[in-house]
Specification:
Elements (H helix, E strand, L loop, with lengths): L6 H15 L11 H8 L3 H13 L3 E4 L3 E4 L21 H19 L5 H20 L2 H17 L4 H9 L1 H9 L7 H19 L3 H18 L8
Antiparallel strand pairs: 1-2
Helix pairs in contact: 1-3, 2-3, 4-6, 4-10, 5-6, 5-9, 9-10
Length: 232
């Protein structure tokens, strides 16, 4: 597995498995980075990236001067999001506004080019997203969400727009991960329903509605994160 996926991702998956199995218990301090990296067979840099991902998802919490601990409760009950990592570059509201503009346009353009196989793949990712949320597999839930948006972007024939999308992918990804710790089950179900409406609009080759549904989906995600975006 480590040879097929990025090492930090594989490490994050391993640690999440330890949490879900109870090997790492709620409230328990994780081993030092040196010890943990050695036990997982990864570099400390890869481990730090894995820990950062799991902290963003609400599975871990770092306390300055004390260390990193397994979160005490299911992420949606913690009511705390990780800090916005890109604050030195862009306010998070700016990223959501960019997503609304960029991904809305991508959805409209892709509605004219995506094939039936793409629609089926979008349905599979949405089902996977829902199933893994119920299982508490937050990494797989987010992976499916990221893949959903990537499939739509892959259908856009405006290569400059796609290149722009890819150039800011890390920031866009962070806005998809960061709200997870405060996402209630009802909001996740609403998000999944929004995915299904996006698929329906794409299948209908309705560019205007595909744009609208995607923009509405991102707007609702921003609201979940406590970000108010003007739509006029």
């Amino acid at each position: 597995m480590l040879s097929r996926v990025p090492v930090p991702h594989a490490a994050a998956r391993k640690i999440q498995g330890m949490i879900l199995s109870g090997e790492l218990r709620s409230g328990e301090k994780v081993p030092s980075q040196r010890e943990f990296a050695q036990s997982l067979g990864v570099s400390r840099a890869s481990l730090r990236e894995a820990l950062l991902t799991l902290e963003t998802l609400g599975l871990l919490k770092t306390e300055p001067g004390r260390g990193t601990f397994v979160s005490q409760a299911r992420p949606s009950a913690s009511r705390n999001m990780a800090r916005w990592r890109f604050a030195d570059s862009y306010p998070v509201a700016d990223v959501y506004e960019t997503r609304i503009m960029l991904e809305g346009r991508i959805a409209g353009l892709s509605s004219q080019t995506l094939a039936e196989a793409d629609f089926q793949a979008l349905e599979i990712e949405t089902d996977t997203m829902e199933r893994n949320w119920e299982r508490g597999d937050l990494l797989s839930n987010v992976e499916a969400d990221l893949e959903f948006h990537s499939i739509i972007a892959s259908g856009c024939r405006n290569r400059m727009i796609v290149d722009l999308y890819q150039s800011v992918r890390d920031l866009l990804t962070e806005t998809q991960m960061q709200p997870i710790p405060i996402t209630e089950p009802a909001r996740m179900q609403a998000s999944i329903a929004e995915h299904r409406r996006i698929i329906k609009a794409l299948r209908a080759r309705d560019a205007a509605n595909a744009t609208h549904e995607m923009q509405n989906h991102i707007l609702n995600t921003a609201r979940c994160a406590g970000i108010s975006i003007a739509t006029d």
